[in-house]
Amino acid sequence: MAESTFPGGSGPFGGFNSGRSPSMANVHEDEESDTITSPTNTASAAAAPGSPFANSSNFSFNASSGHSQPPSAFRPPGPDDQGFPNNYNMTRRTSVSAESLTPTHHQDSNWKAPYHQKTEDQLSRLRASVSSNFLFSHLDDDSANLVLGALVEKPIPAKDIKVITQGDAGDYFYVVERGAFDIYVNPAGHVTPGPDGMGQKVNTIGPGGSFGELALMYNAPRAATVVSTEKESTLWSLDRVTFRRILMDSAFQRRRMYESFLEEVPLLSTLTLYERSKIADALDTQKFLPGATIIREGDPGEAFFILESGEAEVYKSDSGDTVVKRYKKGDYFGELALLDDKPRAASVVAAKHGGEVKVAYLGKQGFQRLLGPVEGIMRRNDYSGGGGEGSAPATT
Amino acid sequence: MATAKFKSHFHAPHGHKLFRTNSSNLANDKPIDEEQKQKEKNFIACFECNGPPLSPSQIAENPRSKEVGVASKQLRVGDFELIKTIGTGTFARVWLSRLAGSPKEGQKVFALKILRKVDIIRLKQVEHIKNERNTLSAVAGHPFITTMITSFSDRDCLYMLLDYCPGGEVFTYLRRARRFDEDTSRFYGAEIVLILEFLHDMKGIAYRDLKPENILLDSEGHLKLVDFGFAKEISNRHGTAVDWWAFGILIYEFLVGQPPFWNQNPMKIYELIIEGKVKYPQWMSSNARDLIGSLCTVNPSQRLGNISSGGVNGTALVKSHPFFETIDWDALYHRRIKSPIIPKVKHAADASNFDNYDPPSESQSGYSKDMAQKYDHEFKDF
């Protein structure tokens, strides 16, 4: 197997903008993504789906033995059996799905993520516990805080309590704060009657560990049984609907915010609602520490920016250290870059005495890929450029 | 009483209790109109789905003017003989079936999909099932989508009568062949493109479950997309990008024999997907690599199928990709191109291209009166 050698130099992902990692949020930003097709086969007893513990090797290619061989014309020449991972499950994959959620509409924007009080100390430990989990590591700060706030304390008052049971429906994810839990897997895929019904012990999870994260994605049968081993333990739990609702809601709110920002940009005033939401979806975010340069005078202009939070200052080389303009939330700058390749006329810097600055941005190429050349869009109602750009005249 | 009469024709091979006892009607049901019922049975018996296809715009125009895909209030499961299970899902079972009470020789056969209300509710899939019926009704008539001839319901179950595709699942052919050659992959890939174009651009529907398991072959070896349980009407084409991602994965699986991102642990698969690095075997052509790489682009705003260029819209860009250069799209839509796989079908009711499935297990919990009161209005479209 060879890595992609893509014609034209850049790999198939070469154009990918690293300003925002291909975040998990992308999956959830689509308010309609309530389906995830599982690549595993829940019908296969040995392949405990979702199990970080399952290590059974089930190379069961011959799903339908007893059949006559098919006509071979559509079969490519060459060795047949190369390149399959030896644990690749060749049987049918079931489709899995979570419940349908609809995004918050403005009529019922009263939904608020549940909040459960935690000490600073608890919060920082929880943050550390989940930071390595990729479902959480890709969240932006706001969503991450909402998710941490929504965790519910669940005291486990005794030894030998089954927190989750293999084969049951899974709706909760757990983080261990205190105590230890043993993990058992029964190769049957569920707990069976008898003394060893839970199967074999495969692992122990202690403070800072977590389990059941697949339940945050969809309702899959639990892949293992988890049992408390100490007299007193403490877990924090989170259910799927709350988790997905938080992500969906914040993505939805953010998209609406972007759309309302975009409405204010004269250059884009002829966009249809659909085009605007398409652009809103494609915006990337980037953060700047106080004093950091967002765009530099004289550089080629390649993207336009909307200030999402914080404050930015505009400097021009012929004005020295004087701030010639200030941008605040909702202001935009650099949009002429969509139109031509002229160098930036000024520098925009995150305000030195403010907090972190967050901008949403879109490159010229990204814009054109979605909507075609800006010139065509402008021609729709003869936007003349008005001699400047930015929320107020002519700076950048 | 009519139901009793048809009950006697009803044949449940495994003595499944549920199916033996449920010829009772819906709680709010009107008496059966025998004349209307006979008309519907005649329509079903004469229904021919492999004729010359309507154009996509004709199909999309007005589903109500079409005769197919309309819910029946007269039909009962007892009107059908259930011959053999040809597929199972989490809460559905698909039976090869034929109209009961007529000679077996030369009788048309169908696929009857039976869904248990109690399971639908337990698994929180009410919305998905409603979507499935209404989507299938809206798209009935497309040459590469399974045709729902009619739907009906009784106290415990929902039923969808579908055309039978004797070729079985593409999945089975793919696993047996390990991988398809490029021409076969191109042919079936192109038929999928026509399906997605129709669903996205004409109907505003995202399919959301594209995989070889959901693609069947008809008697001539052309595709029929089945299982619209996750299909969803979407606003503003927002959400069709998922199908183009899945299409890239599908082409890869056709050519290589396995999907590009795989691990026993689903969470690991998600990490691989987010990383987005597709590995191509050395023998794969550059056109195939380019197509897959452009489709399997993590950022949807850069994904082929979802982007436009020079005034050419998403699907048209896919169709003009060099990988599909040799495809005559019009001839393909009108089924004039010979399929690379011709299924072996001995007779109309031949189910040998399908795997054998275990008989249905006895139902553990029934659909109670309380549940019926609470949920039956959700199923009124059937």
UniProtKB/TrEMBL annotation, chain A:
Q: Where is this region: Disordered?
A: 1-116
User: What keywords is this UniProt entry annotated with?
Assistant: cAMP, cAMP-binding, Nucleotide-binding, Phosphoprotein, Repeat
Report the PROSITE patterns cross-referenced here.
CNMP_BINDING_1 (PS00888), CNMP_BINDING_2 (PS00889), CNMP_BINDING_3 (PS50042)
A GO cellular component entry from the record: cAMP-dependent protein kinase complex
Biased-composition ranges, Low complexity, are: 37-66
Ranges of residues in domain Cyclic nucleotide-binding: 135-264, 267-381
- Subunit-level organization: Tetramer, composed of 2 regulatory (R) and 2 catalytic (C) subunits. In the presence of cAMP it dissociates into 2 active monomeric C subunits and an R dimer.
Pfam families (alphabetical): cNMP_binding (PF00027)
**CDD domains in the record, alphabetically?**
CAP_ED
Question: Which residues are involved in binding 3',5'-cyclic AMP 2?
Answer: 335, 344
Under Gene3D superfamilies, the record lists:
Jelly Rolls
- Please list the residues that bind 3',5'-cyclic AMP 1: 213, 222
Q: Name one GO molecular function term.
A: cAMP binding
- Protein name, UniProt field: cAMP-dependent protein kinase regulatory subunit
Membrane-spanning intervals of the chain: none
Q: Which family does it belong to?
A: Belongs to the cAMP-dependent kinase regulatory chain family.
Listed under GO biological process in this entry are: cellular response to stress
Cite the record's Gly residues compositional bias ranges: 8-17
Polar residues composition bias: residue spans: 84-104
UniProtKB/TrEMBL annotation, chain B:
Origin superkingdom: Eukaryota
Which Gene3D superfamilies does this UniProt record tie to the protein?
Phosphorylase Kinase, domain 1 (3.30.200.20), Transferase(Phosphotransferase) domain 1 (1.10.510.10)
**Ranges of Basic residues composition bias in the record:** 1-19
**Database matches in InterPro entries:** AGC-kinase_C, Kinase-like_dom_sf, Prot_kinase_dom, Protein_kinase_ATP_BS, Ser/Thr_kinase_AS
Q: Which GO terms describe its molecular function?
A: ATP binding; cAMP-dependent protein kinase activity
Please report a single Pfam family linked to this protein. Answer: Pkinase
User: Which keywords fit this entry according to its UniProt record?
Assistant: ATP-binding, Kinase, Nucleotide-binding, Serine/threonine-protein kinase, Transferase
Q: Read off the SMART domains from this record.
A: S_TK_X, S_TKc
Which residues are listed for ATP binding in this entry?
113
Record-given protein name: cAMP-dependent protein kinase
| Organism of origin | Letharia lupina
